Amino acid sequence: MTPDSLPSIDIVIIGINVERYLNDCIASIRAADYPQELLNIIYVDGGSRDRSPDIGQEAGIRVIRLDHPHPTPGRGRNAGMLVATAPFIQFLDADTILHPDWLKAALPCFNETIVAVCGKRSERRPDLNLYHRIASVEWFYEQGPCRYFGGDFLARRQPLTAIGGFDDLLVAGEEPDLSCRLRQQGWVIWRTTADMTLHELNMTRFAQYWKRAFRSGHAYAQICLRYLRTTEKLWLREFFRISAAVLLPLLIIGVGGLLGHPAMALITAGIVVLRPMARIPATMRRCHISFGMALAYALHASFVVYPQFFGMLRFLLSPRMGPVVNRRSS
Fold it and tell me: CB of 309 within 8 A of CB of 214?
């Protein structure tokens, strides 16, 4: 694309209590290798108790304050999308930094069938601790058509608004939900290996790790049941994988005890629990990491299913779960 043919882009940032990150996020957009007159920055605040909205206003960008008792990421992104007018929208979380070359790298990926493009998200401080190193491995994806985008992506505005945008009610998993609905209408989501954003995980405590995994489990159950009656059955495999990883070892131990072979049952259950260890060589090749890091990631994969399982249980036992939504594939 030539400078004269570059489209205008609205950049929608969402956040709550992000005063320590928002200035850096805005500064990274203004440092982007893209004509600034074609960029319009919108910050949607979910109800901060700090100076986040003031920081946005002081930076001269449009600030939208959500007046809702239950702010969700989807509700915030929809509020930004509602006032957007450009043909493209770049969505960002406030704790991310936009790579200066991203917008120009992503735009050529679009064609008549591609609705959204996402790139490489990396941790801003990957060596801070083990939590950050694990997250750095989780952000690794290969290029090509993909099932869904995450919180940072560049998209055509019109198809997103036409389909109703994000689901306001989802506390997590709103991006896969929207991605699935777009793909059901024939759109393609493209992932490229180009650098897109730096992310600040800011995780230093086990409680944060547990809460993040718990929320992901909640999303797995909610999205799985929502699409249970569709052709794709989004996240059904993940739902059963997590359930089997937690319940199968317990079943093996119970049956082994009843049959009088507790030692053999414990060994077999241990093998099931540590199955991710078998993927260490593949993880090393795919993510270009050391054996030690691949081992740490395998141990994480063996353990993370437990908070995820409790998150799934929390949703399934919630009185607000409601009926399964029947969204059939078109």
Answer: no
Q: Residue ranges of the domains in the chain?
A: 3-204, 236-316
The per-residue b/e assignment along 184-214, b for 16 or more CB within 10 angstroms, e otherwise, is beebbbbbbebbbbbbbbebeeeeebbebbb
Sorting pLDDT into bands at 50, 70 and 90, what band is 232?
confident
- State CA 130 to chain mean position distance: 20
Cβ-based neighbour number of residue 1 at 10 Å: 9
Kindly report which listed range (65-74, 122-131, 172-181, 230-239) carries the lowest average pLDDT score: 65-74
pLDDT digits (tens, 9 = 90+) for 105-128: 999 999 999 999 999 999 999 999
- For residue 89, the one-letter residue type is I
How far is it, in rounded angstroms, from Cα 46 to Cα 72? 7
- Token code pair at residue 202: 């800011």
**How is domain 3-204 classified at the CATH fold level?**
Spore Coat Polysaccharide Biosynthesis Protein SpsA; Chain A (3.90.550)
8 Å CB contact between 7 and 83:
no
The burial of 218, by beta-carbon neighbours within 10 Å (0-12 exposed, 13-18 middle, 19 or more buried), is given as buried
